[in-house]
User: What shape does this take?
Amino acid sequence: MIRVATVDDIMEIENIYNEILDYEEQTVSYTNWQKGLYPTVDYAKSAIDNNTMFVGENEKGIYGCVVLNSIQPKEYDNISWVTKAQPSEIMVIHTLCIRPSESGKGKARIMMEFIEKYAKEQGYKVIRLDTYEGNIPAGTLYPKIGYIYVGTTKFHFQNVIWEDLKCFEKSL
Assistant: This one.
């Protein structure tokens, strides 16, 4: 089940963020996220306050989370998007996270299916997202489920880290 997150979910969301960051410190960093910088509990609280944080859960509890809104980073202006749409017709996926212990079990695909259904129900015309160029799992998944790679652009992440992010979109 995937649902809008509530304030009661904040600890589990923070745990997911920390589990991912700890896992990446010990293995390989696919996200290029930085502990204490992004994602943070304040980021999650803000998304919950705006009803834009969603969680995926099963019998074991919350396994993933994602922020869905129409906020496009300014760097998106550098991309030649295939689908022309007004800002209000564009859903943007931010910070899709799957708990490391649930990784590789199709949970990201389940969440993406929900996102597409939800976006259609809400009247969006297109979904856009970006991922760190070194995020091989995400960069492999998105084309498999119909997202078109539209380009890579430099992001000045949190005004601290320069990184190249691959951008994808899917017309609905």
About this structure: The CA atoms of residues 10 and 45 lie 7 Å apart. The helical segments are 10-26, 41-49, 107-121, 136-144.
